[in-house]
Amino acid sequence: MGEQREDGYDDLLDAIESNTGYYLSCPAGHGSLPPRQVCPTCGDDDLSTEPLPDTGTVVTFTEIAVPAPAFTGQTPVVVIADFGPVRLTGRLVDDSDALEVGSEVVPTVATSPDGGRHIGARLVSER
Amino acid sequence: MHAVRIAGAGSTAFGASPGRTGRDLFGEAARIAIKDSGVPRADIDRLCYGNFVGTVTESQGHQAPLMTEAAGVTAPATRYESACASGGVALKSAVEAVRSGAIDVALVGGMERMHNVTTEQATEGLAMAADHLYESRAGVTFPGAYALMARAYFEEFGGTRADLAAVAVKNHRNAIGNENAQFQRAISTTDVLEAPTIADPLGLYDACPITDGASACVLVSEAYAKEHDLNASVTVTGTGQGTDSLALQHRESLTRTPATTRAATAAYDDAGISPADIDLLEVHDCFTIAEVVALEGLGLYDHGAAIDAASSGETTRDGDLPVNLSGGLKAKGHPVGATGVSQVVELTKLLRGDHVNSTAVPDASVAVAHNAGGTVASATVHVLEVRP
Ligand SMILES: [Zn+2]
User: Fold this and answer.
1) What is the pLDDT of residues B211-241, one digit of tens each?
2) Would you identify the CATH topology of the domain B4-117+209-386?
3) Which of A106, A108, B283, B304 would you label with B114, given CA atoms 20 to 30 Å apart?
4) B129 in A contact zone (CB under 8 Å)
5) Mean local confidence (pLDDT), B340-355
6) Domain match, A57 and A44 both
7) Domain that includes residue A39, residue range
8) pTM score, two decimals?
9) Among residues B48, B84, B208, B217, which one is catalytic?
10) Cβ separation of A64 and B250 shorter than 8 Å?
């Protein structure tokens, strides 16, 4: 895993890695994440790229005690954070002691032990 | 439109049978259902079959022809896959085929075999119901996804782990005496609260088990039932299906399940019933929180109001609206691809009076089955009614 690029998805991860994260927006303002041919909400194919807000607010989280094989021996903490027009699901890369619903996070890129790149989240309070 | 009758229903015992092949499990369920129906095998016009991860656990694709052989029938056959709602969508397709007049007799069923792989492999298989890039890669497991929903629910509406535990306690109680159920034993609230955490706030006893098993039903047109003098009092009067975004992050709300609501609205309209007419339900309680959001999505409770439905006794065996009298996925077990059909097997027996818990609902005439896939990105609802 991690060798073959996933167009759109890996482009977004590259952008997040260089602090130029983005989301897709249709004329009606529906946010979505790539790759998209059309807005998933209204079907409009006029999608623009808009800058992802710098921080998001955690709306829920969990620490997974029984992980998938990619995370064997770990207990990954996963958050869903609200970035306004879009939400992102990301693995918390900090210690989770200070994590709570309402915590501010910044998006980052994380890698699982098997090499799978994915969206990560870093607590603003730990920076 | 041709009314659809359930002529026969049957399941294997649910539990751990790692050495039994999928073809053997489904063959048994089909044999029981066909025998129960009294329908000659030669009259079966179609097999609609649900399975989720057999391509992973048994390295077996193209299962439909294998399962017609296992059932001893020669009929066009298709495998349906909608994660944990695979059985429900197979059922919906069979109902529509009979209703349309295209066929008179359908065999519908499902099977899952998961104990032949490790828990980690099973966890990975089940996680395939989520968005691979945006959820699974970040570590989200199937229990993890429901844990995200549970915490969001507590935040929005309140509620405690003890409220959720009451769902598990209730469904375990209901499974006692159900000879097909995986766990035929009572558990206490303390057992649930003290069980190891799998994905906080959910513990092991908030989760349904990994289950091997199969279920099947024989559906016939009303005309066929009359012509062949079949004993088929249970009628499928409503069918509905709903779809939502696959990933939780793309949904407007993490605590609402519009796929369930869409499926329910369609099925209730189809049957001409309202939620107040429902006497009993089997709902998709893969996790305790799932039963709560199902009851809300089905229109039986307002949003945020079903959290204490079990702890208050409203949905227990003796309550006003018994839910999961079979034991539910939680205690009866959850052979993923079979579950949607297994719910209808249980309800058919409950309505016919030949289920161990029929005595809890002696006058019931309207039952609802709710089957969900993933974090309810897919849902089906079926209405069953007793008709002369
Ligand atoms: Zn749009």
Assistant:
1) 999 999 999 999 999 999 999 999 999 999 9
2) Peroxisomal Thiolase; Chain A, domain 1 (3.40.47)
3) B283
4) no
5) 98
6) no
7) 1-52
8) 0.98
9) B84
10) no
B45-62 pLDDT, tens digit each: 999 999 999 999 999 999
Radius of gyration of chain A (CA): 15
Q: Which residues of B touch A32 (CB under 8 A)?
A: 250
DSSP sequence for B205-242: GGBPPP-BEEEEEEEEEHHHHHHTT----EEEEEEEEE
Among residues 17-36 of chain A, which lie with CB inside 8 Å of chain B? 32-33
How many structural domains is chain A composed of? Answer: 2
Q: Verify that A40 and A64 share a domain, yes or no.
A: no
- Sort out which chain B residues have CB atoms less than 8 A from A120's CB and list them: 138
Domain boundaries in chain B? 4-117+209-386
**Amino acid letter for position A103:** S
> What confidence score (pLDDT) does residue A126 get?
80
Same domain, A45 and A91: no
Assess whether A44 and A80 both reside in one domain. no
Same domain, yes or no: A92 and A123: yes
CB-CB: which of B124, B137, B148 is closest to A60?
B148
Q: Give CA–CA dist B49/B337, Å, rounded.
A: 8
Q: What is the dihedral of CA B21, B22, B24, B28, to 10 degrees?
A: 140
- Distance CA(B62)–CA(B95), nearest Å, equals 22
B334 is catalytic: yes
Mean pLDDT rounded to a whole number for chain B: 97
Q: How far apart are the first and last CA of chain A?
A: 30
pLDDT at site B119: 86
- Residue A97 and residue A69 share a domain: yes
Interface contact flag, A65 B135, Cβ < 8 Å: no
Place of tokens 């039986």: B300
The verdict on whether B62 is a catalytic residue reads: no
For B126, the closest chain A residue by CA position comes to A68
A38 and A87 fall within a common domain: no
Nearest to B193 by CA among B176, B173, B168: B168
Residues 184-213 of B with CB under 8 A from A: 196-202
Give yes or no: residues A63 and A95 share one domain.
yes
Residue where one domain finishes, among candidates A9, A32, A52: A52
Q: Is the peptide bond before A35 cis (omega within 30 degrees of 0)?
A: yes
CB spacing of A59 vs B155 below 8 angstroms: yes
pLDDT at residue B4, rounded to an integer: 98
CB contact under 8 A, A69 and B147: no
Distance from the Cα of A109 to chain B's closest Cα (Å) equals 10
| List of chain A residues with pLDDT < 70 | 1-2
Residue in A69, A89, A117 nearest the CB of B135: A89
